[in-house]
Design brief:
7-stranded mixed β-sheet, globular, 2 helices, alpha/beta
Length: 119
């Protein structure tokens, strides 16, 4: 069974298409069912397919309550404030990614850590 990828609500899909959206598109292109949870929510709205294997989740509460994909789940998180809510997804693994400004100026670099979850 394929691992699904979930990006928790951090920003909206169409806003400044950057690293999170690009990463989620790549997971989907490689065949992983991928769910980008929009920050702006519309209760009752079904997940919107935006590409093959890629959906934008507009009703996060319904998704968590009964719409989570079966099997292995990877949660990709780029906002540290969400760390205490990630167990809602019952993830197999979590990747925390953060971006920092380099000492030399405006350039950024990514830092990632991944961990299997105990549940």
């Amino acid at each position: 069974m394929t691992c699904s990828v979930i990006y928790p609500p951090t920003l909206d899909w169409p806003w400044l298409i950057q690293r999170p959206q690009q990463l989620m598109r790549q997971f989907a292109r490689h065949g992983y069912p991928t769910y980008f949870c929009n920050l702006t929510q519309t209760p009752g709205r079904a997940p919107e397919p935006v590409a093959p294997n890629l959906w934008v989740v507009h009703d996060h509460e319904a998704f968590v309550a009964g719409g989570l994909p079966g099997g292995a789940r990877l949660v990709w998180c780029s906002w540290p404030k969400l760390h205490d809510t990630l167990d809602r997804y019952r993830p197999t693994a979590v990747v925390f990614e953060r971006w920092t400004t380099s000492p030399s100026g405006g350039r950024t670099r990514g830092r990632c850590c991944a961990a299997p979850m105990p549940w």
